[in-house]
Design a protein that fits this description.
208 residues; elongated; 44% helix; alpha+beta; single chain; three-stranded antiparallel β-sheet; five-stranded antiparallel β-sheet
Length: 208
């Protein structure tokens, strides 16, 4: 049904998780009532037991709440390309306790949900699918700056995955101790392919 509604992948995953646990809760209540179990007495017992084990489940509870926050806020969602700490990859699944991240090496990493709320997370896909990447270039002091600039822009124009709007730019970063330091800045609309695009640009720059 969600696929036919043409909802984005992240929203589909969020709705699926909520519906799943809602149905589990309702089904459990119906089964207990059908079995003739007094739910009010169970609530008292559960409350007493909950106090006892609550301290031992703080981490699980924190990840559970963090998962709900992620699903509600949609700051990161399934299909997004993110960077957190030393990890980069695509969000494959957001569960109640943890999130599954598929790295550039096609490895699946299980990340506790709490980590996304406690650490700075770069979402390369948030608010659209374009991002800018920086290619640092260091050359000797006797380099012709105009020739270098044209060579860098030519390399950017020859890379088909680089967007023409916004146009590529060359920035003169600084006068280094032993080199002139520049940056080639280009925009792309494939955030999850930023490393292969960066590598391709480096090859083209070396050739130019």
């Amino acid at each position: 049904i969600l696929e036919r509604l043409k909802l984005n992948r992240g929203l589909q995953a969020a709705i699926t998780v909520f519906v799943k646990y809602f149905l589990i809760t309702i089904s459990s209540v119906i089964i207990l009532q059908t079995a003739g179990i007094n739910l009010s007495s169970l609530a008292v017992i559960a409350g007493v037991i909950g106090i006892g084990i609550g301290f031992g489940l703080q981490n699980i509870a924190s990840n559970f709440i963090s998962g709900l926050v992620l699903l509600f806020e949609q700051t990161i969602k399934v299909g997004d390309y993110i960077e957190i700490g030393n990890l980069k990859g695509v969000i494959e699944k957001i569960a109640i306790r943890s999130t599954i991240l598929r790295t550039d090496d096609d490895l699946f990493v299980i990340v506790p949900n709490q980590r996304f709320l406690e650490n700075d997370t770069v979402n390369w896909s948030y608010g659209g699918h374009t991002c800018r990447i920086h290619i640092p270039i260091s050359v000797s002091y006797d380099t012709d700056v105009l020739v270098l600039t044209e060579a860098l822009l030519t390399a950017a124009r020859l890379e088909p995955r680089v967007l023409t709007n916004p146009a590529p730019e060359v920035w003169f970063d600084k006068f280094g101790d032993h080199s002139l330091d520049f940056e080639l800045l280009v925009w792309i609309n494939e955030p999850d392919a930023n490393e292969p695009i960066r590598s391709s640009l480096n090859f083209r720059i070396a050739y130019e």
